[in-house]
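Before the break, one more example. Copy the sequence into your notebook; we will annotate it together after we see the structure.
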Amino acid sequence: MCEQFVCAQNGVQSIRDIPWGQGWTLVKKEFETCLRKITMLGYGLVLISHIETRKEKTADDSEIEILAPSMPKRCYEVVNQIVDIIGYIATEWDENGESQRWLYTRQTPTVMAGSRFPYLAPKIKLGYDELVKAINDAIDKQREIDGATVVDKIEQKIEEPLNFNQIRTEAQTLWGNLVGKDPANADKILKKVEMIFGRKIKLSEITEDQVDLFNLVLIEMKDMLNA
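Here is what the structure looks like once it is written out:
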């Protein structure tokens, strides 16, 4: 969908039709921008991928099979910079035939995994509470072993609420500047609005309870003006 959006922005049928190979660069930038905006809005981000099995040669020239996320390389490069944990979920059966799902958080010769927590358990029973406890345990262990400082409470900066009328006025000004610069920018802006809102909507139809989304539109318009 990200690729289709960039194609629509540039008026081409295929990403390869954008000159000088810039299409893939634009797709990567758009994908990264969207993911980072989600995290900046205060949401936790969980990305789920199927796995793929690929063969790689070892030092002795033999081959091993590695389980890894089945996502394009450009996609993985963006995701890998954002996430705190790359986990592999697998099902195991005990001697009674009962199944249990586990989350593996540490790299092995045959499984791609890892985390930013050096003392996170390599194998955790799959579940939200179990993961939270494992992360807390890892933080406590890092404090004990490495002397890391753990802060229970942080001083939160209270941000001023978004001003709907101010955003609307600034958006109207940017619309005039962008469309005056290039009439084709009108369609580009509306495509960005549709992507953010999930449906076609005019700037004049955005209501005050949608101010957070309106602010994202404003950011996109500023980026267009500075491009």
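The chain has three domains: 1-44, 51-146, 161-227. The mean pLDDT is 87. Try to locate both features in your own notes.
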